[in-house]
Amino acid sequence: MPYIPHTPEDTARMLAAIGLDSIDELFDEIPPALRAEGFAGVPAGIDEAAAARLMQSRAAQDGRSLCFVGAGAYDHYIPAAVWDLAARGEFYSAYTPYQAEASQGTLQLIYEYQSMMCALTGMEVSNASLYDGATAFAEACLMAVRANRRAGRRRILVSRALSPVYRRVAETIVAGQDIELVELPLRDGRLDPDALPADAAGQYAALALQQPSYLGTLEDVDRLSDWAAAQGLLLIAVCNPLSLAVLKPPGEWGEAGADIACGEGQPLGIPLSSGGPYFGYIVSRERLVRQMPGRIVGRTVDVDGRPGFTLTLQAREQHIRRSKATSNICTNQGLMVTAATIYMSLLGAEGLQRTAAACHANTARLAARLAALDGVRIAFEPFFHEVVLQLDRPAAAVLAGLAERGIAAGVDLGDSYPELGPAILSCATEQRSDADIEVYAAALAEVLDSSEVA
Amino acid sequence: MPYIPHTPEDTARMLAAIGLDSIDELFDEIPPALRAEGFAGVPAGIDEAAAARLMQSRAAQDGRSLCFVGAGAYDHYIPAAVWDLAARGEFYSAYTPYQAEASQGTLQLIYEYQSMMCALTGMEVSNASLYDGATAFAEACLMAVRANRRAGRRRILVSRALSPVYRRVAETIVAGQDIELVELPLRDGRLDPDALPADAAGQYAALALQQPSYLGTLEDVDRLSDWAAAQGLLLIAVCNPLSLAVLKPPGEWGEAGADIACGEGQPLGIPLSSGGPYFGYIVSRERLVRQMPGRIVGRTVDVDGRPGFTLTLQAREQHIRRSKATSNICTNQGLMVTAATIYMSLLGAEGLQRTAAACHANTARLAARLAALDGVRIAFEPFFHEVVLQLDRPAAAVLAGLAERGIAAGVDLGDSYPELGPAILSCATEQRSDADIEVYAAALAEVLDSSEVA
Amino acid sequence: MSPEMPLREDLIFEQSAAGRGSPALAPASGEAPGLPPGLLRSVPAALPEVSELQVVRHYTRLSQLNYSIDTHFYPLGSCTMKYNPKVCNRLAMLPGFLGRHPLAPEADGQGVMACLYELQAMLAAVTGMQAFSLTPMAGAQGEFAGVAMIMAYHRSRGDHERREIIVPDAAHGTNPATATMCGCSVREIPTDADGDIDLPALRAAVGPQTAGIMLTNPSTLGVFERRIREVADIVHEAGGLLYYDGANLNAILGRALPGAMGFDVIHVNLHKTFSTPHGGGGPGSGAVGVGRRLEPFLPLPIVGRENGRYRWLGEAERPQSIGRLSAFMGNTGILLRAYVYMRLLGAEGMRRVADYATLNANYLMHRLREAGFRLAYPARRASHEFIVTLKDLHRETGVTAMDVAKALLDRGFHAPTTYFPLLVPECLLIEPTETESPETLDAFAEALAEIRELARSDPEQLRRAPLSTPVRRLDDVRAARQLDLAWRPAD
Amino acid sequence: MSPEMPLREDLIFEQSAAGRGSPALAPASGEAPGLPPGLLRSVPAALPEVSELQVVRHYTRLSQLNYSIDTHFYPLGSCTMKYNPKVCNRLAMLPGFLGRHPLAPEADGQGVMACLYELQAMLAAVTGMQAFSLTPMAGAQGEFAGVAMIMAYHRSRGDHERREIIVPDAAHGTNPATATMCGCSVREIPTDADGDIDLPALRAAVGPQTAGIMLTNPSTLGVFERRIREVADIVHEAGGLLYYDGANLNAILGRALPGAMGFDVIHVNLHKTFSTPHGGGGPGSGAVGVGRRLEPFLPLPIVGRENGRYRWLGEAERPQSIGRLSAFMGNTGILLRAYVYMRLLGAEGMRRVADYATLNANYLMHRLREAGFRLAYPARRASHEFIVTLKDLHRETGVTAMDVAKALLDRGFHAPTTYFPLLVPECLLIEPTETESPETLDAFAEALAEIRELARSDPEQLRRAPLSTPVRRLDDVRAARQLDLAWRPAD
Ligand SMILES: Cc1ncc(COP(=O)(O)O)c(C=O)c1O
Ligand SMILES: Cc1ncc(COP(=O)(O)O)c(C=O)c1O
């Protein structure tokens, strides 16, 4: 039987020991009316070779286009060692490290991860991961509101340049708790400083920014950070962790730095994988650690005085604090953190910096090359590694034309940013060669020339 | 520097410790005339991502055809667990287990491998592998001659149905030692019993047979084994180990059984991999163990009386016996043995039996389907999982036509067996579906109908 | 390893040397001209600078410090630590799936979408629900989706006063925590001596404030809630809905359908019942299924099918949805693993899961009862797990469930879940799963029996356990008081 | 692990239960009608019947009993245990390469053949030879090919009396064993006190019977043969040819070309210098290179190129070849790994290999000299390896090289090569390789220094080593006398 080791003799011996005649009797506490036998709608089992053939034929249909999409997930090269190590059975098939003595591998790794995230962001404490960047942002909002509990502030100012899908997810998650996200408008693709509410103090729990923004632009983080501090608002920074190898870390924004930073960990060695699993990171100032959601690992000593690692501050968590926990999160994205930790160890600060810089340079090259075409202009500069391209005709049709030519050219901004007119968001990571950029440009020229699009 | 951990400070510190000014000085014992600087003809290094792109583009050109080739290497399904485990760094990056206490993993695994090969072949001792099936056959010939040393017999009778390439390789290897392979002719694709020399006794060291033969046919192994025993010849059996899940093991042939069995281990979980690495197995009767080439693992006890494993009978080997060793082999095919041991554990006797039986059944279906075409006939029956198809026109042109249609249809037997006329050897493993067989049949019909081939 | 050679591994930071690193792993140039200098980082992040060999050796060694399914029996109750077939991992990581950007054109993702579409249908079939959304990324997020849907349903009917969620006292912590996250208040109800819900208490608890109830069945007490239909009737009659926490689905797969018990919404932990790996803490997947009433509220996106093509259904098609729970569509790679697992087992194989999970649990329970252990619910059948209480042993010897757990580590077994559910004192919640052989169960039972003997003869020895692990018992108090949560470079 | 829990794992056979097994892994039916009953197996082979989980757990645990590069420093002299980059493995196992049958049409293998063609050229460049054949499957088979070519060359000139191969007394065992396999007799010549070949002895040895000489340079004594050109002249003038055993190529890569030293034929251990993994004993590759004289005799097949297409060259194109050494073309997958490695390093990276392998060896030699160890060739530079002799220590304390080796295991290091080369008493042949950090070398030197102290203060303790390994010292005599080479089912 697939993955069940029992021989008929085993089964008989075990039933006899229990004193039963059949396996059916094991279920005699289920009321007869509720007993089911098998499933309609589930096919018969197949052998491993057949499953391999099936999945190979499915996978062969996917992922063939040349990728210039970013918008929160990025096509970076992942060194072979990352997943060779992360996929080792001892990491892969372990549970959450509740028994610390039997889980020092996972625990030390998480401690190293926390250390790396603190180093990258310039903050003091990190948890062991959240589900993804969007839920990390939602948790950051909840954390900010909890930190303002006594002040009773349940509204958060959010830049319109912060990922629209992050904002939507956060709204889904915080809605039940009557927390409101208040959008701040943009000018030139960045938060409009003139639109900052003069009376923010006392009204809002936090200001949330994304750097680089969803639109690839760079916010004036020092100034915005100082403004938030002056108004008594916490500052929530949403950052692509890879970009922090080049950009100023949120811990150093303005005079005081951000209070909470969070974002999507996928750029750190996680495959695109059609959307997940990725992982959310969240870091904060030490004074906020008791509001932190999720697991945290601490270093301590054992009875012999030797250093060791263990889950700590568990009184924040659902299995102890139940309805008063900082979050309901239990299972997180551990294996992804394993991969990210290995990735960061392999690349180091310099490797990350070079990767990030190459993404920036490639996107700059892409933008310049495309903007040379009639009907294409760069909307905002400077940008980090994503660029908004405004078009002189409907973006959806252009993207469709490019898709037919094997190019995943970017995201249509029409739904989220209608004010930009027809516009797409494109990205060229370090994986895109000059030849790839040329393919994109030639295809775009062809699409724009053709009668396919009005 | 790729894979070299030294920082400039490390290098300086180390040189200073040694008392040198530069790395160049480390090489001052090399006569100046011999010193070289760099290499012409070697390109500059590339980063890992570039290497991945290069190799992906190379691999994308390969292995796309539908495989009906056998002839010594077979397209079997390999369960995912096999290589997940075999590729673990602790197996993958260890050396030959000279330090037994630090290599119990590899040593116990080899002991298990030896046990499995003995079980499969019905013999008593196995070594830890040879390079491949062909060299294993060569070593078996040398072993037989050594076992006959006192009798001075240096000639071996070999069936013409034994793989032509094995015979060629063996000739290359035994040639220097003035050993001669004497070919025995065939009748109906099998060794012709009437052609067995009446005066073999005292003239030859051994008789060598392949079962199933290179041509897929089945020899009358009991009778041939008894004949060899009666003549005082050793019997060398070359067997596909997978077939032994179904066929009578060489240890049980005739009254006495074979003396040495050997062959290609690739069917036991080793990928086709464009030709290698595979591994050769060799097993024998216990009385011949001191003539066995290569490494052997034995079970013993440690100083505390606990069981443990170690390399044994090393006095046969080159590192001890030097010019008098049983073979020059040192590095063997350890990792392949690791995979094969895991493969056999996963499938068990029943899984191997079912796989072998499915190969037979598929090849029978293939043969019947193809023989229904005009101009195609099955040369010999019964066959195991390879079949000789005789054609009414040149085989090379037919194979080329099939290749153009994406089918690797088999091997042209013209060079090795001109007496068969235009003929090919085809194989359908358990991996070939009925639909695959239909594709082959339809393409063959098309090729035979077309004007491509005379 | 020997006492001189503790199985200890320096932090990767402690192995760092400035200027080391693996340049083959990144592009050659690090120029990023055109970025405003004021926005740049001034000092490189203090990440380790180590060679690839150092990285490989370090994380290989760290991995060896773990207990895991692949190395140890891991009978962690409520966690379903069964074998994760290697092939599921392999096939979910095929290049076409792995390299695809989630926002690439749909035409470029028909393969993965076909798998997800079929997975939605198979999950509906095995739970008896109407429709599924795969987007929740773990059980707790599935719970969130479920309670949010319950709330959205009441709201859609103008029923704004229903803001209370009932949970049994034995419930997993995520249940009450989830209710809070959804803005609900939580009411706990007691369990009776046999582990069933106290029906009078439930009747007393329901009312116009009742949004719903969250249950697992079998419950976290390891027993099947026999009067589940009555529970459903009481809650439904009061206007509330029933949430099924599917963490224990392994116990009844193919034997009973939550949909038939009267549940309105369910989450399924694919990382439990459908054998996707736990990864040392995740990722998982908490796919949610609903009956017809709640279907409009399912979280997005969902895979739809039209004219033989698959496509994502979003806000346009499902305007009443509670919304999105992730930036893309959840843990796709985990979903693919579960899909392969379900296809491998098929209907017949899946039915056997509950059969043998239950057989193993009842057999092990029997062995432990024979060995003198006290069961929390001795009159009941075990489901796929069961509870031993060490209350008596503790009273007699001072040995705690924690001591026993640590002593098991010394004997090559991972410990069961301890101190959960909270209402059973000194408890061990033991879940062997169907993938373990009877030999392993026997060895585990013998180890526990031996430990029990030792508790009587030499309790001090147990209090010192574990002795054979890379570290011995850790100072948790110090960990929480003298926070050391990140390595920092010495100034 | 603790004394109660020896790191011991039952044989997989001992975990077997009749009727268990992994049916998902094989086709459903086992019918093979049409095979003559008399030729069939009557009793199934006694293979283990175990579940997939049992297999995974067993071999995962077994793997953990090994020392390996990925877990330990492994300074095994003559073996070049350097880091094997993971990416080489990954890229050599791409599906197009892995799934291709070796006899599939050439059009279906242009990718792999392009790699092999370029590898032939790169190996020729780094050795200074004319042409390469990649088919030998390990160093020893490369040696066989080399000596067979030498013999074929002499034969082709009618020179049938040249049947003697000269080897230095320090030669690796494969050298004389190979000569015998090729039907040659072996003459050993001595080494002088500085580790160089005794030239007068060589002059006396050569003659009309001389087929050739087999040398490594640097030699297995860890020193560079300084008078190699004179050696070459002596042998060539006597009508013999020179064989270069490339096992030590790591020492001179980019610093000196064997071709320039006067060698006629060379084998290269790709599993040493070019970092393909050793796999617990193999597979390797012993590609052979030749000067122009021997090119016609290269073993087959070889990759050729015509009009931009690659094709196999065989007997038709190379009628004088010594023939074939494998059924197909050798260890292709290993060749691909070496190819990727060479491309990653490039000319510059490869030059650094010898630089840092040599630096590490000389640094470690220096540290050990400082710690009081006696070097076998104290007046010489180390090449990529060097020899410590414990002759004095042994005399003083009774402690042997074996004892020291085992004590190193207890300290988390694999032992160096011991008792080879045979002419240096109580020797340790130490090869750190370029991929190890100075910190590791320092730690190793300190461990050895500590062991040396212990040899004086408490030699008994060293004779008991190792203590921390899964087993302690094994009874080799019993292993050879009471042969137990295979598990057999109890009758
Ligand atoms: C009964 C029960 N409910 C819910 C959960 C939460 O699931 P997850 O950890 O996937 O969020 C768990 C997990 O341990 C559980 O056991
Ligand atoms: C000097 C020397 N020559 C030859 C060989 C043989 O190489 P292989 O083991 O690849 O056959 C070795 C291997 O250890 C060696 O060290």
Describe the structure.
The complex is a heterotetramer, with two copies of chain A (454 residues) and two copies of chain C (491 residues). Chain A has twelve helices and 17 strands. By secondary structure, chain A is an alpha/beta fold. In chain A, α8 links the parallel β7 (206-211) and β8. The longest helix of chain A is centred in the C-terminal third of the chain and has 38 residues, at 334-371. Chain C is an alpha/beta fold and 491 residues long. Chain C folds into two domains: 87-345, Type I PLP-dependent aspartate aminotransferase-like (Major domain) (Aspartate Aminotransferase, domain 2); 352-477, Aspartate Aminotransferase, domain 1, CATH 3.90.1150. Helices cover 36% and strands 11% of the residues of chain C. Chain C has 15 helices and 13 strands. Chain C has helices at residues 52-64, 86-92, 95-98, 110-127, 139-156, 174-181, 199-205, 228-237, 258-261, 332-370, 391-397, 401-410, 438-457, 459-464, 476-481, and strands spanning 131-133, 164-168, 185-189, 210-215, 241-245, 265-269, 286-290, 302-306, 309-313, 374-375, 386-389, 417-418, 427-430. In chain C, the strands form three sheets. Chain C has a seven-stranded mixed β-sheet with strand order 1-7-6-5-4-2-3, sandwiched between helices. In chain C, α2 (86-92) runs antiparallel to α10 (332-370) and α4 runs parallel beside α10. Chain C starts with 51 loop residues before the first helix and ends in a 10-residue tail after the last helix. The interface between A and C is large, with 206 and 209 residues. Bound molecules: pyridoxal-5'-phosphate (2 copies). One pyridoxal-5'-phosphate (PLP) is lined by residues 78-79, 138-140, 172, 174, 216, 220, 245, 247, 269, 284, 286 of chain C.
How would you summarize this macromolecular structure in one to three sentences?
The complex is a heterotetramer, with two copies of chain A (454 residues) and two copies of chain C (491 residues). Chain A folds into two domains: 66-78 and 349-448, Aspartate Aminotransferase, domain 1 (Alpha-Beta Complex); 81-343, 3-Layer(aba) Sandwich (Aspartate Aminotransferase, domain 2), CATH 3.40.640.10.
